Amino acid sequence: MSLSAHFFVFNLIILELTIFNENGVIEIVGNIILVLCLLRCLQYSLKSHIKQGHYFWIAAILVFFIVIRRELNYLADVFIPSGFSIWSHSYDWWEDSVLLLIYIITAGLLIYSWRYFWVLLKDTAIALYIIVAALALLQYMGENAIGFSPEIGVAVEELSENIIYTIALLYLLSFDLSDFEGRLSNRQGFELEAHNS
User: Fold this and answer.
1) Tens digit of each residue's pLDDT (9 = 90 or more) over 49-63
2) Residue 156 to residue 147: CA distance in whole angstroms
3) Which of 27, 45, 62, 84 could bond to 91 as cystine, CB 3.0-4.6 Å?
4) How sure is the predictor about 3, in pLDDT bands with cuts at 50, 70 and 90?
5) Does the pLDDT at position 24 exceed 90?
């Protein structure tokens, strides 16, 4: 094998290890996109004039927080010592308890704002659901190396996740909150909130 071929193979290995691995550059890009989604939901929560909308956007913030936490799951191994314990419970127990509480709060907020959530779901194009479902299936196949080698599966998983996150961000950026809530304010069952924005 020539020197240029060795260099090419070396670059491919470095590319695989630094970009397409589970904790590589592509993962960082995905987390940045998720933080931007979370911030956009925070903005909508502050601007919402409908009570159910305010709670829906808080639930969306919590959902993005949970996804970011899932994506950064390796940080606990880096920063928390292996024998860590508070009140005779391990870090994993505390983390699971806090996440369970966040899941319950999120579910409660979504249940409370179900009318707002339902109208938002009905307003979204069906093609978007199909695209995200196909990407989620591709992500699952990549994660479990179904139809892909384990190395390519990781790249497929990470790329699929980032495309889904990008779609979510683009949807949130193009969403017109004032128009959406203007249409809802005339419907029965939606309480207007009196707060300054």
Assistant:
1) 888 999 999 999 999
2) 11
3) 84
4) low
5) no
Number of H helices, E strands in the chain: 9, 2
Q: Which residues have a Cβ under 8 Å from the Cβ of 55 and sit 6 or more positions away? A: 109, 112, 113
Q: How far apart are CA 56 and CA 50, in angstroms?
A: 10
Residue type, 30: G
- The DSSP annotation for 5-31 comes to HHHHHHHHHHHHHHTSSTTSHHHHHHH
The amino acid present at 77, given as its one-letter code, is D
Q: Tokens standing for 133?
A: 């479902």
In the 8-state DSSP scheme, what is residue 191? P
Whether the full predicted model's pTM is greater than 0.85, yes or no, is no
Q: Which residue has the tokens 């300054």?
A: 196
